[in-house]
Task: structure prediction
Amino acid sequence: MPQVNVSAVRNVSRNQKMQKGVDRKSDLRFTVGLAPNVVQQVEKYAQSTDSSMSKAIAALVRIGLEGQEQRKRAFFKKLKANLADDDPKQEDQLVDEFRDLILGR
Result:
């Protein structure tokens, strides 16, 4: 597995924050090492959205996190809907569906 180097640096200097009158404590810059195949995919995404690599990485992370939350919500919704349903015929189908939801396939 490729090594990932992550370090946080403040993105906005104190003077810039004071000038804008906004405290941007949540704005951080990270350095991340990516596998070559991931870099190619990010480059393609950046080109297709006409954005920088940095903005493309940020967008893809946001999209991934949102997708993970959606899969989790769908999992619990299906689980709740099927808790009272004890039909053995559907058991294998439900196991496959839940496995797909959990693993994100």
Notes: Residues 34-103 form one domain. The beta strands are 8-10, 28-30. The chain has two domains: 1-33, 34-103.
